[in-house]
Amino acid sequence: MAVSSRSISRRKGSIPWSMVVDLLILGLWGAMLVRFWVTGQMALLLHPDYQWLAHLTAILLLGLAALRGRQIWQQVSQFSRLPPVITADSHISLLPRQISTSLLLAVAVFGLIYTPRPFTSDTALQRGITDTLTMTRSQPQRFTLNTNPEERTIIDWVRTLNVYPEPDAYAGKKADVAGFVIYPPGWSENYLMISRFVLTCCAADAYPVGLPVRLAEGQPRPRQDTWLQVQGQMTTDTLDGKRQLVIDASQVEEIPEPRNPYEY
Predict the structure, then answer these.
(1) Mean pLDDT (whole number) for 4-27
(2) What pLDDT, in 10s, does the model give residues 52-81?
(3) Where are the alpha helices (DSSP H) in 172-231?
(4) Of 107, 112, 115, 230, which residue is least crowded by CB atoms under 10 Å?
């Protein structure tokens, strides 16, 4: 750790390049957050409860960038009446300024050109699909047992199974859920998993939940990661050596990927 000396820009008319770099970093980071905000891509990265923090940060960063720009203009202006401006070299830094500045600029530029994508089946299989919610994971915000079965989402069914885990209790009930297709290894050709990712805080802690679906005889197999609306009746079957609740599909319809594909 090193403490750099405090430097003060005193010359009028000279360009304070360190302040210009500060302006670029603040502006690019603010623009990156605003981009995710206005395009709706923030929903792919953060839980709605925390998005306001990112929105507020974007406003503050852009405000600081504007303030920095005003300071630069005043410093190079022959009519500046402000006292000398302390440059960014006045703080304690773990890394040399050149390295930290390069990292901040690189991440901001990457964020401006990168388009976040929802997680797919590959990530779901890596993280492990479950029909339960463990105690270490946040519980869904919404659960009403009185909801009609055909109005329940996948997360509603998973929450229901957590409370009443006997699959035979739901046999014969209607199901109408939407999710993307996963083919777990070892399953028969006429089975698939209809799944959604659950977001508790941010994309880093997203985890998949799902329900097995048994396709009707002769039903074409949808492509993996295709979004489907599946209607049918609940039944039970043995998969992976475990008796599970399964949707016996009567209608399978391909649907567009939702703007926000996550559950909470």
Answers:
(1) 71
(2) 999 999 999 999 999 999 888 888 876 555
(3) none
(4) 115
Q: What is the Cα–Cα distance from 24 to 69, expressed in whole angstroms?
A: 9
Distance CA 31, CA 19 (A): 18
Q: How is residue 151 written in tokens?
A: 């109005």
Which two structure tokens, joined as six digits, stand for 158?
Answer: 């998973």
Q: Phi then psi for 15, rounded to 5 degrees?
A: -90, 120
CA 119, chain centre distance (Å): 9
Mean confidence (pLDDT) of the chain? 83
The predicted structure's pLDDT at residue 264? 83
| 8-state DSSP, 261 | -
**Angle 54-37-62 from CA coordinates, rounded to 5°:** 60
User: Checking DSSP bridges between strand 242-254 and strand 207-214, what pairing results, if any?
Assistant: parallel
20-26 own/partner pairs: CB under 8 Å, 24+ apart: 20/72, 21/88, 21/101, 21/105, 22/68, 22/88, 23/65, 23/68, 23/69, 23/72, 24/105, 25/101, 25/104, 25/105, 25/108, 26/61, 26/62, 26/64, 26/65, 26/68
Residues 142-177: pLDDT tens digits? Answer: 555 567 888 889 988 988 888 888 888 898 999 999
